Amino acid sequence: MRYACTLLAIGLFATLSLQAQDGGRQIPSVDIKALNGSTFNTGSIENDGNPIIISFWATWCSPCKRELNAIAEDYVDWQDETGVKLIAISIDDARNMQKVKPYVDGQLWDYEVYLDPNADFKRAMNVNNVPHTFLIDGNGKIVWQHNSYQPGDELELYELVEKLAAGEVIN
Amino acid sequence: MPMKQLRLLAAISLFSFCYFDSSAQEEGILEGLQIHGNFDVYGQQYNKDSIIGAPIVPEQSGINAFTNLIATKGKFSAGVRIESYLPPVQGFDVRYGNQPIGVPFRYARFAQDGLEVTAGNFYEQFGNGLILRAYEERALGIDNAFDGVRVKYSPFRGVYLKGLVGNQRYYWQKSDGIVRAFDAEFQVNELFTKLESSALRLSLGGSVVSKYQSGGNSSLDLPENVAGGAGRFQLNWKDFGLMGEYAFKANDPTKSNHYIYKNGQGIFLSATYSRRGFGVNISAKSIDNMEFRSDREAGLNDLFINYLPALSRQHTYNLAATLYPYATQPNGEVGIQGDLIYKIKRGSKIGGKYGTTIQINVSMINALKRDYLVNSDMDSANALLDQQVYLEDDPGREGYSTTLLNIGDSTYYRDYNIEIERKFTKHFKLKATYVYQVYNIALIQNKVSPNVKANIAVIEGLHTMGKKHSIRWEAQTLFTHEDQGDWIFGLVEYGYSPHWIFTILNQYNYGNKVKDLRVNYPTAQITYIQNALRLSLGYGRQRAGIFCVGGVCRNVPAANGLTVAITSSF
């Protein structure tokens, strides 16, 4: 019983606090790695006021690759129509990290890709498992997120991107 | 404090928080405060099923639950993780059940102008982790987080320093040993403005790690302070990349290395070339006596200070991933891996209308050859060393001699695989995979058996109908004369975007030499997704297997029953 009490208290605490936040939260500031080995701070993610998609993936995650390959086919159109930018965060650790760049180039992805080998950014973004996709508005606030992927999900995501680009508010 | 008082205190603080929350809002004390987190629950119900070897669980169920809460306000952040095991799900270490619920992870952090200070729990990785990596892999039940203090400081652009001290998490306890560590990384192109836009990019790094553990009352004179270190570089030029790391560990007699005083060392090298539509990576790794833990008696996956990645492909298809996966042998192994991806252009004769992707991966891992100093075979040499006496032929208790280039004859692992993926029409995609594995099951799983040689073939199809409907299917077979013999696997998944996924799958061990063990493992699963919330319900049989991430593995016992998984982020 006391566990239920504890969990309830936490739930209540979280709900109350969340209500105190207006709109979404900002992207947390964490040091991760660029594909060339240099350090990149996630606090500097921006896209001139246009929408941003942040997608967590891994080379060993099939649904992640299906999602990013599906978006890759239409990415040029998405960019032209809405100015959106996709940032792909690979959570591959030292075992597979060196295979990320060959895979990205091999699949002709035009995304900005970063490495998060010890899951620091993943934890800061509260991601449980991949694929996990975030949508960021022009003010840098997280306005939507989605876990897992199945074909068709990218269309729902793009509808939201279009709304953001048209200046609509997403809840 | 008695439980009653504790509950009262919790209630009071909760109410005062709510009151404080609403009043403080107006005054702006909490302005900018953001609270977020996530939630992850996995539960299993267990039926009796002796034919598949499912263990009998007196509680008839198990639940692992994790809740993370992070609060941030400007330069400050703090977080807690509440974990509960009521009792732990089968296959997770029973020691997690020593405490049903608790807060094993909490921290406070301050960050400003290139300085970051964390007090409490934290994770960390230096370079590739060869000398230090604290991480959480919840699916494996691994959490070797530090509890102590960490300071990160960047005095100017291009220089990144980290220092830490702490004990490591050991289920609901902490390690006896203390770890002290320092790392420096230099981004050469950031340091010199002249080089900023150079096509040649170089970064250098170095770490020093030291652990302290009391010698206890062993008959050996055990080193209480053990030092280790590593140096690394990464070089990029146009389409080429080269990465290397060397790690070293001073004498560290442990239960796992039979209390020898030999130094340990390891090297990891990787070269990459890629351009649009083509990528190749070749890696090599050799390690000797590099098991580095904050407790010399620790076993399993407990209290590792470092991380030694497995140099093989991380498979995703069930039969290729969970029957014969390689696990790193930290006491010694030598391996190489080659990985290639090539995309045949869309619209070309061979590539078809949408293009075709080919991926080839080869990995070979062998033992490190050792010359034992004691005049007997390996097993009796180790048995003698385990008696903790100094031997005449080996007065320094070095155990053996070798070098990192001393490749042994014993095969640990081979994996040759090819994968071809092609989109045929706008609504149909096909992927074919062939895998050949040789697996030293005696070494990795302690089974009395010759090396397993397995041929695995997989075909996967994906059909989309309209904008929201999709059907994905997999047909897999595994042929082998060893171990459990041949397997066949089938899966069909219907997706109704964006909320529903229905999956049925079955695997059948039709080739088992024991007729009674030719068993079917059917499972059905429904998943509902609403934004960050994912809820799934499954029922069926789960085959005993090995679940691995990054070359670190956990045995998953057979089970029969209901599974529930809920994850959410907020």
Structure report:
The complex is a heterodimer of chains A (171) and B (570). Chain A is built from five helices and seven strands, in the order αβββαβαβαββα. In chain A, a hairpin with a 4-residue loop joins strand 1 (31-34) and strand 2 (39-41). In chain A, strands 2-1-5-4-3-6-7 form a seven-stranded mixed beta sheet. With 171 residues, chain A is α/β, with parallel strands linked by helices. Chain A is 38% helix and 20% strand. The relative contact order of chain A is 0.19. Chain B has 570 residues and is mainly β. Chain B has five helices and 33 strands. Chain B has helices spanning 3-27, 188-191, 318-322, 378-386, 441-445, and strands at residues 34-45, 61-73, 76-85, 101-112, 115-122, 124-125, 133-134, 136-137, 142-143, 146-153, 159-170, 173-174, 178-187, 200-212, 225-237, 240-249, 264-275, 278-288, 332-344, 356-368, 371-372, 400-401, 407-425, 428-439, 452-465, 469-479, 487-496, 500-508, 523-530, 533-542, 545-549, 552-556, 559-569. Chain B has a 24-stranded antiparallel beta barrel. Chain B has a two-stranded antiparallel sheet with strand order 6-7. In chain B, strands 8-9 form a two-stranded antiparallel ribbon. The longest helix of chain B is centred in the N-terminal third of the chain and has 25 residues, at 3-27. Chain B is globular, with a radius of gyration of 26 Å. Chain B starts with a helix and ends with a strand.
